[in-house]
Structures are given as structure tokens and as C-alpha cells.
Automatic annotation (TrEMBL):
PANTHER family: DIHYDRODIPICOLINATE SYNTHASE. It comes from the Bacteria. The keyword Lipoprotein does not apply. GO terms for molecular function: 4-hydroxy-tetrahydrodipicolinate synthase activity. InterPro entries: Aldolase_TIM, DapA-like. Belongs to the DapA family. It comes from Fodinibius halophilus. This is Dihydrodipicolinate synthase family protein.
Length: 308
């Protein structure tokens, strides 16, 4: 499946049973809710998907399940966040064999690689696969920035096609457009900057709160792309207190509580994460409940066939 890198790509949560085993039935149900809301692709086993707690077999099990459930309807990407180049290449090759549409690729984990090492790592993975690659650029959380000069080296590989732009610097969208035009497709990776990034030319949104509020997330994207900025802005302003739950170290717990509130998931997380308690829990529940009370009626949106 080709990827055109436009639209809303949920970095979907991983569903667990109370004993921390994978809850694939709830995972399937959640995938179906997302697709029915009009999302454009799915990313498995990312940070929000608790990648650091998943072993290789579980990541591939999630991929098999997602491909079985929705693989013919939308692109299904597997996140590659490994500590060694060898492991990254192995998992990428396994994902390709199983039928993944593409991968999201992070710099090496644990070791803080320098620019030369990061470029070499990305090139090695790109050379090992024909899958389309979405580079994840998040220096705030991972301590490594993929600079424009680094992208200049990477674009010699046709399958390095897009970036999840999470630098928190909105001007980076314009810098990338000025330097590379449409060669590198830009998807905003920060919920609280998504509308601004799309107005400035980003192609889409790798989203977090979409897991609980897919209709609103898709509506904002479609309205912005249709030039209906005022309508999108009204929804976005309502959404902002919820979106701020994503830029938090407890984003997984926060978003899973939102999924419970909207009836599309459970709050089960895998240790070392623990369910929220005390003032933290009260604050998140308050944000969610107040937002649900004011949940807006969405306007009619004509979704073009090409956007699905």
C-alpha cells in the first residue's frame, strides 16, 4: 500500500487486560472506532502505545491484529524504537514480511547518538527495506534533533518520505518547506500545535487524544484542509484542555482515562506505569468531564475520497 502522508494518524494506545497481557479484542474494537471516524492511517507501538514495555513478539502480534482488522482500508505503520541498529533492521524486515504499510523510525534508544551516528543508523534501516519511512523528530523527549542538514543527507533514500515533526518549533515547518518543498511530508506530532502546523503547511497530524476523540480530531483536520478555519478553530479551542493531557509524562494514563470516559478503551497500563491517584487523578478527570459537558456539535464535512 502506498502512503500519501495526508490526514490523521493516531499513535494508538495498546490495550491490556488487568494482568497486563495484551487485550486484542478491545484493541480490535478501538481500531474499528478509529477507522469509522475517518482516520487516514494508524501507528502501532509508539510512545503512547507503551513501546518500551512491549517485546518484539508483542509488537508483531499487534501488527498482525491491525492488519487483519483494518489493513486493507488504511496504512498500518509499526514504530521502530530499538537500542541497536541490528535490532531495528530485524524488526523492520519482519514488519515488511508481515505486510506493514510502513514504519515510523526513531533514533537509537538509550545511547545518545551524535549527528553522524543518527544519519548512519537511519540510512542503514532505509537500505534494508522498501517500506516507506516516517522519521520521528522529537528532541524534547529523546534528546536528539534531526536537523535540516541531516535530512539533506537522508533524502537520497526514496523511502525516507516523511517526518513526525515534534520539535515544538512551529517555524521548523516553514524551514522544511523552504528547503525541501514537498519532498519530505510533514505531520505534526504535538497535539497542542497541530492546527497551527497544518495552517503553516503540515500535511497531517500524528495524534494522541484522537484515541478518545477521533471525530473531533478528524473534523479539525478536514476543516483546515477545506479552508474552514473559523469552524476548525472553535473545535480546537474546546479541545485544547484535553490536548494538553498529551504533553505530560503521564500521557498514557491520561489518554486511557479519556478513552474510558468516551467508552472506547480501558485504563489498564503496564508497569512500571501505574494508574493515576489522588490530585493527579482528580485533575485529569475534571478536565475530561468538563470537556465532555461542553462537547461541541460537529459541522457537516464532506470528506473527499482521496482523504481516506
Amino acid at each position: 500500500m502506498n502512503i500519501d502522508w495526508h490526514g490523521v494518524y493516531p499513535a494508538i494506545t495498546t490495550k491490556f487486560n488487568e494482568d497486563e497481557s495484551l487485550d486484542l479484542d478491545t484493541f480490535r474494537d478501538h481500531l474499528r472506532v478509529q477507522v469509522e471516524a475517518g482516520i487516514h492511517g494508524i501507528i502501532l507501538a509508539g510512545s503512547l502505545g507503551e513501546a518500551s514495555t512491549l517485546n518484539r513478539e508483542e509488537k508483531l502480534q499487534l501488527l498482525d491484529t491491525a492488519l487483519d482488522e483494518v489493513g486493507d482500508e488504511i496504512p498500518v505503520l509499526l514504530n521502530i524504537a530499538e537500542s541497536t541498529q541490528r535490532d531495528a533492521i530485524q524488526l523492520t524486515k519482519e514488519a515488511e514480511v508481515k505486510g506493514a504499510s510502513g514504519i515510523m523510525l526513531l533514533p537509537p534508544m538509550q545511547y545518545k547518538a551524535d549527528k553522524r551516528e543518527v544519519v548512519s543508523y537511519f540510512k542503514a534501516v532505509a537500505e534494508a527495506t522498501d517500506l516507506p519511512i516516517l522519521i520521528y523528530n522529537n528532541p524534547v523527549d529523546y534528546g536528539i534533533e534531526v536537523t535540516l542538514d541531516m535530512f539533506e543527507e537522508l533524502i537520497e533514500y526514496d523511502n525516507i518520505q516523511a517526518v513526525k515533526e515534534s520539535t515544538r518549533d512551529l517555524t521548523n515547518v516553514t524551514r522544511m518547506k523552504n528547503r525541501f518543498g514537498d519532498r519530505i511530508k510533514i505531520l505534526c506530532g504535538v497535539d497542542t500545535l497541530a492546527m497551527e502546523a497544518m495552517v503553516m503547511g503540515a500535511c497531517g497530524w500524528v495524534a494522541g487524544l484522537v484515541s478518545a476523540f477521533p471525530d473531533e480530531t478528524v473534523a479539525i483536520y478536514e476543516l483546515v484542509k477545506a479552508g474552514r478555519i473559523e469552524e476548525a478553530r472553535e473545535i480546537y479551542r474546546w479541545f485544547m484542555p484535553l490536548l494538553e493531557l498529551d504533553i505530560n509524562s503521564k500521557l498514557v494514563q491520561n489518554i486511557k482515562l479519556a478513552e474510558v470516559a468516551t467508552g472506547v478503551g480501558t485504563e489498564h497500563v503496564r508497569k512500571p506505569r501505574l494508574p493515576l491517584i489522588g490530585e493527579e487523578l482528580e485533575h485529569v478527570q475534571s478536565v475530561i468531564s468538563e470537556s465532555l459537558e461542553k462537547r461541541p456539535k460537529l459541522p457537516e464535512i464532506q470528506q473527499p475520497v482521496s482523504s481516506r
